[in-house]
Amino acid sequence: MLLLLGLLLTHSNLTVASPAPPDTLTARETRNLTALARAVGDLKYFYPNRHTARVSWETVLTRAIPAVRHAPTDQALAATLDRLLRPLAPGCRLAIGTGTAILPAPPAAAGFYWEHRGLGLDKAGLGLVTGLMRLGGLHYESRIEAVSATETAAAFPDGPTYTEALTDSVHLTLPLVLTAAQHRLRLRYRPGRRVRQLSAATPEQRMATVMLTWNIIRHFYPYQAVLDRAGWTEALPAALEQAGRATTETELLAAVRRLLARLPDRHLSFSPLTRTGLHLTAPPLALELAWADSAVVVHRVPAGLASAVAPGAVLTHLNGQPAGPLLEALRRTIPATSPTVARQLAARQLLPELAATAASAAFTLRDSLGRTRTQTWAFRQLRGSHSEPLGPVREVAPGIVYLDATRLRYADFRRALPQLQAAGALVVDVRRRPHYDLLRILPHFTAEPLLSDSIATPLLHQPNFGHPGWLATASSPILPQLPLLTAPKVFLTGPDTYSYGETVATLVRNNRLGVLLGQATGGTNGEMNFVSIGRAYELTFTGRRVLPQGEVYQGRGLTPDLPVMPTPSPIGRPLDATLQQAIEWLRAQ
């Protein structure tokens, strides 16, 4: 990542803040801070005192980190944590030893507990995003509820306490249900000067950023099997060490993104908060790169550069830096179902990442004859457009009609019906996010009602996703529509077929609407949640899960019926390799 950071900063026109001093953690310090992170996550989200719920945990962490990191032994660690955390959660207990800390097991009784329907906290600073979430039906709620003894018994089959092994010998035990008096009890905690916004300026704030991010995913990510496969619990120490060594916000962002990239979830993102909470998307570049046959190659060339470079040329260096290490640095920050897919995504993002901060770049390219040439181009020369010259419906071979699901509207579909009814076969491209009108078009492909998967919100009362409930929203069948198009159909898929695109792909597979051809899908579905980390950064993640009727694909992707991997040789052809394979397969039927 440092190579890429150097490349970005060297060619940037932006003023970069003075770097903060790096900080190196010892193994003992990393162990101590990992324990602190675990404890704070438990108390922040599950200790049901109404005053604890209003605590600034950014302030707690930045004050606690210096004291906790230097504890020389587990016994000293337990004593330090007890001194710092008991004022915030008087009912919790810390114990040292090989056994677990034990609070007297109370009988199920009425009281107060946290109820999380997804994560409804941590929205401060999101600006317009919170309103857009409401408009989009993304309702997440977190609140302390009064509960009866019967509800307590149902919510906590193992008893209303929770014990966390902070290390192999330090244990935290906290009550998950408090009496009315305990719920209202004022705290003896005196925070001093409040940390209103985290930054990369100090090691404490950088490590607090990592701790808060890690805890949200740990407690609220709804696909726990994916989390376990990724080794999320073991990921924190390395992320803390990277955050300590970071000296700029750019390096802190890279450290957090590398942590998140352990999860193969394309909904994950981490970026600085803007005033509105929204992020503008820059126009695409007309010069596009791709990863094929273990090389970064030119995939598409703007008309103005056609005489200088041809599709299929290999990018060997960018601003004098070898392309391979730059790609790998970016790849490690991208969530994907495999390293190969991450490299494909990184190849596409390499130039947009650089164009966000630099005015120009030097490209060293090797052509098909092995000749190498370096040229410098301003990014304004490489700007593309969101518009496409070709329509969303067109014939790509005699009798074979192509539909671009990203741009296809139902009105376009109705206008093209005579052409579609006469076609011998259809190719539907869902490799990019389809338009929602596709759900009005798919019922024309079948005589049976379409059944889609349900969405479920986790209902949580205890840490670490213990004994979750699920609030499912059942989907209604989509009734067939006339005219019925019975021609054979191929649906093109790829790594960008995820979220709503993956909903479409599962509809196709489960309802036998056609054949999936291309690469595996992105392995990410469900509904997103948006949260603020320390009023400085925005974290997005999957907040609700899909309850699949068929194949479980989260974190893996749907394997297409006819796999097609990208290769360098067809990249310069008018038709891309995946579309060409679809045409050849349909002709053979």
Automatic annotation (TrEMBL):
GO terms for biological process: proteolysis. The keyword Signal applies. This is Tail specific protease domain-containing protein. Residues 1-17 form the signal peptide. Residues 486-564 form the Tail specific protease domain. It comes from Hymenobacter rubripertinctus. The keyword Electron transport does not apply. Keywords: Signal. One of its GO terms (molecular function) is serine-type peptidase activity.
